[in-house]
Amino acid sequence: MNNIFTEKSFYVIRYDLDELIFFRQYIEILEEVDMIREKDLEMKMDSIRGKLTDPLVLIGFPGIAMVGKLAVLNIAKTLEAIPCQAIYFSDFPPQALISQDGYIRIPQATLHVARNVANRDIIIISADYQPITQAGIYQFSDYICKTCKELKVKAIIATGAFVSQRQVTGDRKIYVSGTSREIIDFFMTSSSVNTVLFNVGYITGANGVIPAWGSIHYDIEGACLLADALPMLQFDPKASKAIVQVISEKYDLPMDVEDLNKEIENIEIVSTQLSEVMKEEEKRPKYQPYFG
Description:
Elements: E1 9-16, E2 19-26, E3 36-40, E4 56-59, H1 67-78, E5 82-89, E6 97-98, E7 104-105, E8 109-117, E9 120-127, H2 134-150, E10 155-162, E11 174-178, H3 181-188, E12 195-197, H4 206-218, E13 221-228, H5 237-251, H6 258-283
Parallel strand pairs: 4-9, 4-10, 10-13, 11-12
Antiparallel strand pairs: 1-2, 3-5, 5-8, 6-7, 8-9, 11-13
Helix pairs in contact: 1-5, 2-4, 5-6
């Protein structure tokens, strides 16, 4: 069995319900296999290298209820951020995405730039998917952090969802973690949103790894803002709105949450209708089975 092991692969063996499962992952070495491709979009990367003012990076990749992705895309729209670079990675799902017009494209991450906002430049990064393997998460995170270092970024703010054990009602809390006491305290003093310290636990995926990796290997400060979310929803715009509010407040950014408010209203209407249907069902006489 030793001959199936190579320097570029490893096995994880797990015993689960009397079933032995073998998971094999191939790890391509960055120096040997270039798995990431870039393509300039409306604003060329060469036009901003070395020319950004106190750049801040906001990231939100797909996750629970799309909380982080919706939040940063809302900010990108409000700031009229310009698409600067498409990033293609072989560890994104191997499929083509089809638009309403029938056009196909490959899954990508997109880097947007908003210039001269509150005396700084804002870089916003999101994607269609996260990488699908653990090795891919780390390789992608390193690529993003290296790019941020080249652009002289001083802070990376990640966003995402927090699934609480308590019942989530009313305004959403924001759970704050970071790579320094200074950046944690910076967000803990929010006056617009109830921010609380996320002091025990873990954050899975790129939204958690990127700010930590940037701090360890590239000396870039990082924080992660997680909003109370309802995991049963495909989208949770109320959680995304809370993230937008705290980021806009702390960095003095213009805020427009009209689109999020419309989605919140739509979800509340559907929830109300579903609740009424369930109440009517409870009023109906129960079927009494007959055994004989």
